[in-house]
Amino acid sequence: MLNFIFRHKTFFIIILSLLLIKVIWVAGICWNNGSFDGEKDDLLQRRNYLVNKIKVEPCQLLDEMPAGIGLQFQGEWALYSCSMLTEALSNMAELYPETKNESLVSIDSLIAIVMSPELRLYDKLRWGEDPLESLEGNKSHISYLSHLAWMIGNYRRIGGDDRYDHLHDSICRTMNRRIVQSQVMNIPTYPEEPVYVPDMMVAIVALSDYARLNDGKYSVTVDTWLRRAQTEWLDDTTGLLVSFLDENGKTDAPVKGSYSALNCYYLTKIDGAFAKNQYDRLKSRFSQDFPVSGIKEYHDHACWFGMDIDAGPIILNLSPSGTAFAIGSATYFGDNDFRNKLLKTAEIAGHTVPWGNCRHYLLAEAALVGEAITLAMRTNKNHQATL
Question: Which of 210, 353, 184, 189 is nearest to 259 (CA)?
């Protein structure tokens, strides 16, 4: 009996010690969170890690994506890794101007990766034609094209030269034509599938960026889409933008926390007032503070454990990608209390690994795209708000 008690007491002490170490670790890693100056070293070291891992040969980048998710999602995750790192680099070029020149060099390389035949392959297989060789056609290709256009827009926004101007013109002209020709102003990511609203929003963000660079060209499309979004595509229950649309602009599918958080982030790029409305609704319906803070994947029922290709592994109701995307809006609106809670959750789940002049979440070894997303979200500065 004494041996039994001793063994269990020892086990209990070990568990408590490990928990205490974790609490101290999280507090230490998150100590400087709350200002771009305080977070500078952390952000730059995460940038270094991502540049080293993503700015590689296209085949090598695709190999970094989990094999178990299949060719299509490997391509999507590689595309997102490049576009989100590009967004982070352009953000940091404005936050820390001394990084601008190296950011431009890296973004140029990332654009080349996304334009490579190897990365375009996943989209080509779904549509039966190459997205860049069919710009005069009518098939959608909206997700691939919009991310590439967004990347080029960021390159130009922070002072890049004119090497991509012609391609930027061609892609945005094609996207605008295809969107306007659609009765519902939304086109599918893939054939025979619904419209994924966050994918469409990348196109609207890319066209909005293009309009700023080109005397308002395509701004009518952006404004019309936003007006219809606020009158036609809001969920009756939550007031949030729907996650999916059918070919008639209708949806019966539930709103997802991951999609809603991503929609809120993209809206910060094009319509601050609409973004704030959606962010407040997201927090009201999808935020959770216990046992850890984050964004739930479902607002109307509990899910203690589940799996979703977009949300990731759902644990204790929380959506990993939804929680990461929400950092973008919290950063933009200067919602430091909620932002710090989300970053603590990210640290609890991800666990930062420092090494030399690099650092990353341990989970990046399995989902590199998540590291890139989080860096883009953390640097989503609103010049009218303070962090």
Answer: 189
